[in-house]
């Protein structure tokens, strides 16, 4: 592991109006890692993802990416530094075809790799290839999630932010999506920061993880350590995942 993390969040505080959503968060993601952030609904996980992308901007603290302070940078310039996000709720373009959605994800400077990149996505998610001329809005939830991840990957990111990729999906689909993430990490060395309510799946997949409660990080450790931790098990893993 390189000494300097690819992503470093230090003392970040984020507000919605006067309401403090994040209260001094510290998180690091090193190159080549899969790191997850788990916690209950409303803990501030998605707010942290959005703060990393500059909307909303942190009111205190710093966000450093690849050695550059991006705390006050506008969102489009942050994206240009090759941070790609597959947001919560997928947010694909419903009236565009699968292929057009993937086109929207490609950065202007990556167009020479476009066909090669599309083929890579189709290999990763064969369902998207079958549906390439279908409108995004007509896809199933699982297919839309694959498309959202695929579109983010078209930007050739150094860091992929995944916000709740398993939300509302059947367990089998979730398994496929997590396997795809693992494959990208192993074969391409893709760095992934994952926010996930399905704590069991996230911790199994992750090198390291953080637990967030009420806008603060309360615990961190390897995925294995947190899976084995009694308090984590009691709070997030009870209910059949043993």
Structural class: alpha/beta
Named CATH architecture of the largest domain: 3-Layer(aba) Sandwich
Overall radius of gyration: 17 Å
CATH class of the largest domain: Alpha Beta
The geometry reads as globular
Instruction: Report the uncertain regions.
Output: none
Q: Write the CATH fold name of the largest domain.
A: Rossmann fold
- H/E series: EEEHEEHEHHHHEHEHEEHH
**What is the β-strand count?**
10
Oligomer status: single chain
Q: Helicity range of the residues?
A: 25-40%
Mean of the pLDDT scores? Answer: 92
The fraction of residues in strands falls at 25-35%
- Biggest sheet, strands in spatial order? 6-7-8-3-9-10
The main β sheet shows up as: 6 strands, mixed
Tally of DSSP helical segments: 10
The domain count comes to 2
CATH superfamily placement of the largest domain:
P-loop containing nucleotide triphosphate hydrolases
Structural description of this entry:
This protein is an alpha/beta fold. The chain has two domains: 167 residues, P-loop containing nucleotide triphosphate hydrolases (Rossmann fold, 3-Layer(aba) Sandwich), CATH 3.40.50; 65 residues, no CATH class. 37% of the residues lie in helices and 25% in strands. The chain has ten helices and ten strands. The strands form two sheets. It has a six-stranded mixed β-sheet, with helices on both faces. Strands 2-1-4-5 form a four-stranded antiparallel β-sheet, with helices on one face. Helix 3 runs parallel beside helix 6. The protein is globular, with a radius of gyration of 17 Å. 43% of the residues are buried. One of its GO terms (biological process) is L-amino acid transport. It comes from Ciceribacter selenitireducens ATCC BAA-1503. Keywords: Amino-acid transport, ATP-binding, Nucleotide-binding, Transport.
């Amino acid at each position: 592991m390189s000494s300097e993390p690819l992503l470093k969040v230090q003392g970040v505080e984020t507000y919605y109006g006067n309401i403090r959503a994040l209260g001094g968060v510290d998180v690091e993601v090193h190159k080549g890692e899969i790191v997850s952030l788990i916690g209950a609904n409303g803990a501030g996980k998605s707010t942290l993802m959005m703060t990393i992308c500059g909307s909303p901007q942190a009111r205190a603290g710093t966000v450093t990416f690849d050695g550059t302070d991006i705390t006050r940078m506008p969102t489009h310039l942050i994206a240009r530094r090759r941070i790609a996000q597959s947001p919560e709720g997928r947010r694909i373009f419903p009236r565009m075809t699968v292929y057009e959605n993937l086109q929207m994800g490609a950065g202007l400077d990556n167009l020479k790799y476009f066909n090669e990149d599309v083929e890579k996505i189709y290999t990763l998610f064969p369902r998207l290839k079958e549906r390439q001329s279908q409108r995004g809005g007509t896809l199933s939830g699982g297919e839309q999630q694959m498309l959202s991840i695929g579109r983010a990957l078209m930007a050739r990111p150094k860091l992929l932010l995944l916000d709740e990729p398993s939300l509302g999906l059947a367990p089998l689909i979730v398994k496929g999506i997590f396997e795809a993430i693992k494959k990208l990490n192993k074969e391409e060395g893709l760095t992934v920061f994952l926010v996930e309510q399905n704590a069991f799946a996230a911790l199994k997949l992750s090198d390291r993880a953080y637990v967030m409660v009420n806008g603060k990080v309360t615990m961190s450790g390897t995925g294995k350590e947190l899976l084995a931790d009694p308090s984590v098990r009691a709070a997030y893993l009870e209910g059949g995942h043993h």
